[in-house]
């Protein structure tokens, strides 16, 4: 049977002595750090929580219970970290990070539906497709390439770099394409 001795009073210890005692039990902290996932906690935050548990266990350790300080600290640390996790998971304390408001979704969806959902009649749809087809057939090879690149979200500068052309030449092709589109729209209105 092992004879356990009382620990030195924490108030009588220097900061370096306390830090050395804490360093002896760092493998416990490392094990729990790998075992548990803490939301929005840095390495230093977890270490601070371990320090809190260490000081608490050092103050409350009773050698007469015939358990080692290491096993006692292990239990206190595990309980303390579980409390941190429970606190994080409490519904009323969950952070709003990565959360989406249903009201916001509803507003954006209705706004999207008003502006972008295709509400054309079948006749309008056929006319639109014919208009686009006519426009594409009227474009030069350069204008068509610029048109396709613009449809993928590229800017005029990116298209110029991609095609290894001066930006002015790409801008002129864009302007010609827009002019042809506007002429087609005007001719459609007159019909």
How would you describe the oligomerization state of the chains in this entry? Answer: single chain
Briefly note the structural class of the backbone.
Answer: mainly alpha
Strand content: under 5%
Radius of gyration: 35 Å
Largest sheet report? none
Number of helices: 9
Termini separation: 105 Å
Q: How many structural domains in the coordinates? A: 2
Number of strands: 0
Low-confidence stretches: 109-117
- Helix residue percentage: over 70%
InterPro entries: RNA_pol_sigma-70_dom, RNA_pol_sigma70_r2, RNA_pol_sigma_r2, Sig_transdc_resp-reg_C-effctor, Tscrpt_reg_LuxR_C, WH-like_DNA-bd_sf
Domain RNA polymerase sigma-70 region: 22-88
Pfam family, one: GerE
Keywords: Transcription, Transcription regulation
Structure description:
The protein is mainly α. It folds into two domains: 10-93, no CATH class; 119-190, Winged helix-like DNA-binding domain superfamily/Winged helix DNA-binding domain (Arc Repressor Mutant, subunit A, Orthogonal Bundle), CATH 1.10.10. It is built from nine helices and no strands. It has helices spanning 15-24, 26-35, 43-60, 69-89, 102-116, 122-138, 141-151, 156-163, 167-190. α7 (141-151) packs across α9. The N and C termini lie far apart (105 Å). 9% of the residues are buried. This is RNA polymerase sigma factor SigS. Sigma factors are initiation factors that promote the attachment of RNA polymerase to specific initiation sites and are then released. Sigma-S contributes to the protection against external stress, thus playing a role in cellular fitness and survival.
